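for the record, two folds in this file. i put them one after another cuz i was lazy. first one right below, seq on top, structure tokens after. the second one comes after a little note so u can tell where it starts
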Amino acid sequence: MAEEEIMIEDDAIALEDGESFDEDGAGIIPFIMEKYTRADKYRENDETRWLRSYRNYRGVYGQDVQFTEAEKSRVFIKVTKTKTLAAYGSIVDVLFASNKFPLSIEPTELPEGVVADVNFDPKEPEELKNSMDLESPYGFAGDGKDLPAGATENSLKEKLGPLKEKLSDIENLKEGAGSTPTSVTFSPAMIAAKSMEKKIHDQLQESGANKHLRSTSFEMALFGTGVMKGPFAVDKEYPNWDDEGNYSPIFKTVPQVSHVSVWNFYPDPDANSMDEATYVIERHKMSRSQLRSLKRRPHFRDSVIEEAIDIGENYTKESWEDDLADYAPEHGVERYQVLEYWGMCDTSMLEEQEVEIPEELRDFDELQINAWICNGKLLRMVLNPFKPAKIPYVAAPYELNPYSFFGVGIAENMDDTQTLMNGFMRMAVDNAVLSGNMLIEVDETNLVPGQDLSVYPGKIFRRQGGAPGQAIFGTKFPNVSNENIQLFDKARQLADESTGLPSFAHGQTGVTGVGRTASGISMLMNAASGSIKTVIKNVDDYLLRPLGEGLFRFNMQFDYDSKIKGDLEVKARGTESLMANEVRSQRLMQFLQVASNPALAPFAKFQYVIREIAKSLDLDPDKVTNNMNDAAIQAELMKGFQQPMPQQPPQQQGQPQQAPAGADPSDPTGAGGGTIGTGQAPIPGEQGFTGVPQQSGQTNTQPNEAVGEQQPPVGSVQ
């Protein structure tokens, strides 16, 4: 289906341009601002945590850190940055191990509306076909058929979904997978699932979802929470030129996903997850041109946007913005603050504002709306067009905090150890500087008064005439920096334990003990991946699956292509890449060996195992593997190419087995490989000896000398 056929806002109830609420939304705007103020106040403690995390990542001391006069060093050891980037890199490597967005669409265990499998056997015996014709074409309860009571055999084709037209001429269709080698099986549910999966992956690719997912993963590792928005409808501009060379772009309404910074995300303060949130507010920082570009989106009021622009820029910096800008000097911001609200609103309030509510929704006490406000003006107001109504935001925690909406990140987990490492390293540096320089003591009674007492090479001091004793003394301060370095190393080990990311996992050298062997390193890396497993599971549960389900609902609601529809389910595949491909391939091969046992083979799904082996080798399973029907056909073809191997005559009992001429005696196979070994000549009197017996007292015959017309012994060198 063409993208331009998607009408995302057809069913949206909106305030159009030229219409107005009472006093231009007087009741809606205070309602939203009260929600925003409450959420902003709730976030104050979280903002403090995020600021400390950001400073530790950047290596910047906050204004709350006070140094004494004795502390000369201001060094900051950026271990937090190293750990954060290591965690971020691990997440990205896992999510994009297969070079595509880790989402898949599969049929449900018992798909409805579209049958899972249907088959027919072109080589089925005629008598069996005839016997089928004699059966009643109607089903009844308890007859053992998959058809419902009262249904005919022909009604099976009504459940084929996208294959209905393709299989309309095929007779003798049976529900289920084929059980004979010659049967042909079709999977309508799987075809619909793969079509939907390709559709979603194309939409994600078009919206740059990989880039947005990487940005989300970074904030998740650093601050503890990553947020994405989508799907939401946008009018995307596609470049186009007519025959005369004039630029005539094409605009299509497509689903979009994007990263939302946690700093601009204000969720319901009483919720601990998006499933519990009744509203979400996103804070936008827009220029004049960005604000005017909203006119191209559906249901934005052009005249109200111009009124908001005429009032002037209203963006006010939050307390944390100067800290993020490295304490930039105060200056005016020529931007507009726009609040985007997604959440519940009382139906009575909407009725007071003369919002037309559909008949089927009037019995609800609350309805979910989307509203945009700027400078006290209501730029957009629509009922949530998605069915079911879902807030189009997902938030994934790095480490789940069950008592808060926002999670815990790497920087917060190692905040104390970062402070300790900075303190010990500053002490070590200050002590090294102090001990590395000479301390000078001066007895001024022995010197002529009024002299400059500074010390430098070639300096000359004038002494008092006849003054006894030494006037200038040098003192060496003891060096105890090694003790401080040891404490620093201990604090770094504590950082490894608190974050679950050992230093060797991100390239630190000096690993001792078991880590010096290849197997030991493998064991340590497997242990280190344990902390990432929980993180990736959170990404699957709180980000990938809800985002995929949102795109699935979007296509089911607004896309009219029947080939992609069916009783399907979304599966997040992030955790599948946790295990190294080499390890997965090895385990799959071990399972395949176990399943080759004739007693266990009927219980193994060999098609799935072969496909998983192909995935572990970074191969496309659809291109390198056959389905069950093609495999059966190929197996029949391979039988024609198999020829029986010639059998060797049985060795007589009691006779030693002789190696062929030219064989390598060290080769256990006896094949030799084309090389001639020296071998060992047979002893006279034994079987196989054909030479002239050596007389007593004679010297040995040279190996290259022929004895009469006899052939050299077997295995000798010619």
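(here's the note) second protein begins now
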Amino acid sequence: MKPPPEALAALVDGTHADPFALLGPHNGPAGTFVRAILHGAEEAEAFSLKGGRLGKMTRVDGPLFEGKLQGKPKPIRYRCRGNGAEWWVTDPYSFGPVLGPMDDFLIAEGTHYRLFDKLGAHVIHHEGADGVHFAVWAPNARSVTLVGDFNGWNPAAHMMRRRVDIGVWEIFIPDIGEGTAYKYRITGPDGTVQPLKADPFAFASELRPRTASIVARPGKREWGDEAHRAHWASVDPRREAISIYEVHPGSWQRDDNGWFLTWDEMAARLIPYAADMGFTHIEFLPVSEHPYDPSWGYQTTGLYAPSARFGDVEGFARFVDGAHRAGIGVLIDWVPAHFPVDEHGLARFDGTALYEHEDPRLGFHPDWNTAIYNFGRREVRSFLVNNALFWAEQYHVDGLRVDAVASMLYRDYSRKDGEWIPNAEGGRENWEAVEFMRATNRALYGTHAGTMTIAEESTSWPGVSHPAFDEGPRTALGFGFKWNMGFMHDTLQYMARDPIHRKYHHNEITFGLVYAFTENFVLPLSHDEVVHGKGTILGKMSGDDWQQFANLRAYYAMMWGYPGKKLLFMGQEFAQRREWSEERALDWHLMDAPAHRGVANLIRDLNRLYRQTPALHARDCEGEGFEWLIADDADNSVFAWLRKAPGEAPVAVIANMTPALHSHYRLPLPHDGVWAEVMNSDATLYGGSGQGNLGQVTATDGAAHIVLPPLATIMLQYTG
């Protein structure tokens, strides 16, 4: 039966909702019938993929051709002629679907844990042809067409097949491959054509300001990191030394022209540097695609695509592999808390609030001008959970640091009365977001041994780093670790005070140890502390230049002796003086100055001591690894505690936070005998005055009399 004229017109203008019903080969009463849109052709003939003639086509109207073919329906190629030219076209409407019933079932259920193998753009061999399979979720769309450089961005060239049960649109385009640029042209339920949309599952994107998705193969074919991954899969990370170097990849260093380093250039510089400095992990601010440089990657619009700023996607995989071969883990910031509203992104993707909430009281952050994911929708939750799994699977990242967790946990986050909607119980908790985080952590820890998740959570939500067991508390989120924001805030506030006033604020150091083991903590000195007028870590220290450096060294040494894993933002390891800016590289010339080189030497030695000394790391997250020696000497602003681990030599950490030299300070110690001075932040190697204990002290009758250098932290390890 001949389709009505309006249906044929919809085919030609690219708005038909079911193009596969009319285009391509079909069984009919008189044999196989085929219909095709062949732009620019004046005549056409159909062939099999192997070159066998199937029949001539008749031009019906404009680019629309029809014909009867020999044999059963099969993939077809057309030899086209027009304007004195000849070319070949393989008919995408002659191929069957790629997705199957099991995909439909798992996608509909929200339990498909390899969506990134099914949705997006994949280079495949299908029914005898090489090409790319595209699939996108747009359940409320009237029609979806694929546009790109392969079809001249023609919105009528490649209308997609709708899988009605799950709202996914798909098409296989033969004869194209990696490097193809594309977007989706989506007509919403009301007939409004949306701005061209990038692929939510795109594995690569164009370099900003362009926003098209790029066909790419994620990850790399061959890896050499088996030993690294096997090690971390075999240990409890809570009992391992973890010292994280936080890096913004766009401004750590730049090339000679002031442009971003490629991942390969970064690997040649950053990996050896981090290894030499003794860090165990590099943590990158978001590496996924984002249009706006000053967002630092937190306004991501391409969750599955490493940013084009740093070269090809395999470059990031090569970086991770190289870091692993050097014994360094790679963590990335992951950002489900920010939903940018750029028109090419997920906002009103199919003409409706698909990924986000319709009601701004549920779905908009006024502070950031970003939307909020609809965590209660299973398809959205599945999209995000799969993204977490994707980075672990395809790029072998060792873990995810999850940004702005508090903003997801609370419906009233940064909102006034009337600007938010309570939950079904009348409370402020966002239980849908809670369940999303629990599901993410269960999926990641359940499928990728050796990975870790770290929450930036700024409130006292109970059980952020407690296992998300079904039978456990509803509030347990299942993260491996949590940033200790209280430690950062209180201790930096203390260090900013003039030493003469510190005795009145002794609790700013001691209070954190009241709750130090309620979660698995990371101690963060992050990028957030060195931007937006906050200065640098050095600049937060009190006193003149010499005192600031002494304070900084004492603070770092105290931090490395404090229970919890360590995190330090780039540049702070050599006492960067200028506030960080994403627009420029760090001030590496400072390393030529003795005071700055001294701080770098200190961080290097602290990392090595921390890693080599189980007493300093093996019980970072457990109370049995900590014991106060002196907690109440506020008058002298002295703090002393013991770090220990079963079967290991304990380490005493003593901090003197005044400029006064104590030459005969009584320190209680649990074991008589020799205690070696294994760290002294006042050593001349670090830029200090060189005061100390000549390498060791001897404890008798439960105490030793020690030299406490001014504004310094020392560590003593029991040797017997």
